[in-house]
Design brief:
The protein is mainly α and 172 residues long. The protein has helices at residues 9-18, 27-33, 39-51, 82-87, 90-117, 135-153; strands at 55-63, 66-73. 48% of the residues lie in helices and 10% in strands. It is built from 6 helices and 2 strands, in the order αααββααα. It is globular. A hairpin with a 2-residue loop joins β1 and β2.
Amino acid sequence: MEFDLFKNQVRFKIALELIAADEGLSIMQLNKLLEEVSQATLYRHVNSMVDDDLLKIVGINRIGKVEEKLYALNTQAYKISEEDWQSATYNEKIKFVTYYFMYILQNYKNYYESSAANQLPDRSTFSLVKLNLTNDSFNDFQSELSTLMEKYFNMKETEEGTDRTISLVIIP
């Protein structure tokens, strides 16, 4: 599958809206979210994205006698095992990394819009740091980081808790 999503802004916007919508969205729902894109343009791009296996139909809503298809990203193509990652080509890896960053971007957009709507300050943070580590130190760092992430990932959900997205990219 070619991942030419970024060559076209409309397709990129459609993908961003669908990235966190596992249950899918209809053309009408997409049209409300992407007011600047005409409905005819949405239909054309969504159909092309389905043909290119970028999107899939995940359901159908019936409104009277009218059927409305629900579209979602075809994320199955973007789940990868360790073995597949090691054997993937550079271009295939770029596809996976791109999908990852799209997901983070959409999460930030949703968070920002929610914060702005509730007049809350933006508390998101990010940092970039280069660490001068030996191979052994780097392996220790990754192991400790993994242990820390697992500790908090495995905590029981509480009613007063809030889902939080923690994103890490390590380039050794």
